[in-house]
């Protein structure tokens, strides 16, 4: 029986049917709903490409022929949608004597599962191994200009047999599911672990313990530089765990890192000879080098929020200097939106199972309690002491957030400073009489 699974591209288009080649396309939703859903989907499953699982299980006891070979398939990053930006990894088994040619992909999930939405948001949606033939999906990768590289692994017959048995054991219905974790357990780390387990102590990866000088966040952002809005969204949502420095082992959560590090790995054979893990490499499809379209200057998030900050600053200063007023409706609007964002990020922290959204310094300047405290601090009967207390504490939190936040670009400075301007003005005395400025 065929199991239907979905890609991020399919999910972002709210599709309920399986595609003919790689993923179906369907009717889209509104920009805000789609953007929010895609952001959640990125956090949940950035590093996989899913196909329909069409292959039947092979008995684990099946003995491979001497002609069998194992290889690692690395699909390159793509530009067709956000789901393709990180690439994908699979393990391929070819045994011409037994007529076997199958790819094992750790990226499947069933969107019709009970409690899908809740599990999806919490990061507890079970993923499973999907098995198919590479030629079933090659057309998709060619059409979306994504490279396909194959590294033939120099495994001994015993190592090939162990890897095959482990993959097929994983593919059994009772073992097929696993708990996906954003940086720690995904479609790239699973094949890595399977290969390492099959090779045992004979495998040496020189860069395994070598520090990369980059954090999980840094490595991730290298793939998102040309997608600044997605980059901003992801960096807003992830917390301090993303700033942990990586060594070679941890960096292999990315398919290209896995490819490059295994290319330098070696195997110690039974006769004492050391040989490369990768016996040979071929490029099944080479992506064409194309001119990448940049986000228009005025639509870049740094530019957008800088312009927004300037407008807010000019409006605030003019109202205070000319009319001696601070507009409470504007503070309610601005800090209400910030509070809503804060609650969203806080809920992500609380419900996510993989921990990557925890201890998020963004919450210091997007404090959830702005909603409803901004109404308490700007009510018609508010005292000067209450307003000073609220906006003073908010100013301290904003400054801490600027210091601790690690979002690329200027957002985590420009946007908090915009809020800080409103806080400072709210604590200023009226220009004519020494009382807090009027709030209209």
Can you offer a commentary on this structure?
- The protein has 440 residues and is α+β, with helices and mostly antiparallel strands.
- It contains 16 helices and 14 strands.
- It has helices spanning 8-12, 31-45, 116-122, 138-143, 157-171, 189-199, 216-222, 228-237, 248-251, 255-263, 301-323, 328-351, 362-365, 370-377, 384-404, 411-426; strands at 69-75, 88-95, 100-108, 126-132, 148-153, 177-179, 203-204, 211-215, 245-247, 266-268, 274-276, 278-285, 325-326, 438-439.
- The strands form four sheets. The protein has a seven-stranded antiparallel sheet. Strands 7-10-11 form a three-stranded antiparallel sheet, with no helix packed on it. The chain has a two-stranded antiparallel ribbon with strand order 8-9.
- A hairpin with a 4-residue loop joins strand 2 (88-95) and strand 3.
- It is elongated.
- The termini are far apart.
- Residues 1-36 and 45-52 have low confidence and may be disordered.
